[in-house]
Design goal:
globular, FAD-dep_Monooxygenase_BioMet, oxidoreductase, FAD/NAD-bd_sf, 7-stranded mixed sheet, 5-stranded parallel sheet, FAD-bd, Flavin-dependent oxidoreductase
Length: about 425
């Protein structure tokens, strides 16, 4: 029952570690010739960090991350709308990690090579397709560096963890069509700055029509003088967008105008943006949920299965939950095809709900609600606009959909908040 994993990103690496824990042999095949740290910040919520903690990675991740303590919402005038504790500060058993994607990937890759062996990840293997018969599945590859054919790989099952541009997804869904653009473009980057608010706050400010910003620290004391590495994401409604490419460079001049007057007593936003190094641009796109992931001995996982708009810190988190579910059912049966079907039956409805909720009512819809009720003007007291109970209910509904509700995660005998 050996498993071939196509793609050595976060999804593929976590799946490999989980399969190893369950005693299921596997090997990863990655298209890039050399794995390097890429990207900017990422959040891993407690329902996903529980999986990583179960793999013995909490100490390594804690050394690389900021443990997020609160989630805070402001309007574009810098007025506080709502705040709530996060991670262990909210009573969860496991932390919420704010971490550079490259550092998270490095921790996972080191663990895979240490536990599964240095040859567990075959690089420079660009998948070109998959075939199968009653006894196994067969992958074909070419090198990325020279486009030369490579030996065919046979395995008991194949899991496509090859992301939003998945070759295997396209093979089984050739008429799927283009990604669905949300009407919002985003720019992302990092800068070194002084700690703000609690020093472990994840902050969302403003709304998409006039400019929205998500900002949070991802590494402490990066300069030896107490400065933090601060991650930011700028989101603005625009009819124009380019094709999705996680590594496309962005231009500050394309969006800085929306934030020029955002000088708050706890953060100077335009100064933060201008002090950033290289920044990235990406359209907020997803795909319509599929009606099928599994085809005999082949299945999809993570972004290959359910590309979603990157809101609510749930893209990587849902992939990690996929990996847990799939590894668990594989360990319980010798029938790969049956295990793949059971995994899909469990995870496809759950991730479909997250994809659709991220479109309509992600957690930052709290800011939109206040904007609509005030006519996008400052308020005297937020309590005169919306009650704390209503704001908490909006946040709670998203947690329910994402799988991290008070009912599903407990601390001792007490439900988390």
């Amino acid at each position: 029952m050996d498993i071939a994993i196509v793609g050595a990103g976060i999804a593929g690496l976590v799946l490999a570690l989980r399969l190893h824990e369950e005693g299921v042999p596997c090997r990863l095949y990655e298209a890039v010739p050399e794995i390097k740290p890429l990207g900017v910040g990422i959040n891993i919520l407690p329902h996903a960090s529980e999986v990583l903690g179960g793999l013995g990675l909490e100490k390594a991740l804690t050394a690389e991350a900021v443990l997020t303590a609160e989630s805070v919402f402001f309007n574009r005038f810098g007025q506080l709308i709502y705040r709530e504790p996060s991670g262990r500060a909210a009573g969860y058993r496991h932390p919420q990690y704010s971490i550079h994607r490259g550092r998270l990937h490095a921790v996972l890759l080191a663990a895979v090579r240490d536990r599964l062996g240095p040859g567990a990840v075959a690089v420079d293997h660009r998948c070109t397709g998959v075939a199968q018969d009653e006894d196994g599945a067969y992958l074909t590859f070419r090198t990325t560096t020279g486009d030369a054919p490579l030996p065919r790989v046979r395995a008991g099952g194949v899991v496509a963890c090859d992301g939003v541009h998945s070759v295997i997804r396209r093979q089984f869904h050739p008429g799927e069509g283009e990604p669905r653009y949300s009407g919002v473009n985003m720019w992302r980057g990092t800068a070194i700055g002084r700690p703000f608010l609690s020093g472990a706050s994840m902050v969302r400010i403003g709304w998409l029509d006039r400019g929205k910003l998500v900002v949070y620290p991802i590494r402490d004391d990066v300069d030896g003088a107490g400065g933090q590495l601060i991650n930011w994401v700028a989101e603005i409604e625009t009819p124009h967008h380019l094709t999705r490419d996680w590594n496309r460079r962005g231009d500050l001049n394309d969006f800085i105008g929306a934030y020029e007057d955002w000088h708050f007593d706890w953060l100077d936003v335009p100064a933060l943006l201008r002090s950033s190094g290289a920044m990235l641009e990406y359209p907020m796109v997803d795909q319509e949920p599929l009606d099928r992931w599994t085809f005999g001995r082949v299945t999809l996982l993570g972004d290959a299965a359910h590309p979603m708009v990157p809101r609510g810190s749930n893209g990587a988190g849902q992939a990690i939950l996929d990996a847990k579910a799939l590894s668990t059912v594989l360990a319980g049966t010798g029938d790969v095809a049956a295990a793949f079907r059971a995994y899909e039956d469990q995870r496809r409805p759950a991730t479909t709900a997250v994809v659709l909720t991220n479109r309509r009512t992600p957690p930052d819809v709290i800011i939109r609600e206040v904007r609509d009720r005030t006519g996008d003007r400052p308020f005297e007291r937020v309590e005169d606009v919306i009650s704390h109970e209503e704001l908490a209910a909006i946040s709670r509904r998203y947690k329910d959909v994402a799988g991290m509700s008070a009912r599903s995660l407990m601390v001792g005998d007490q439900a988390v908040i």
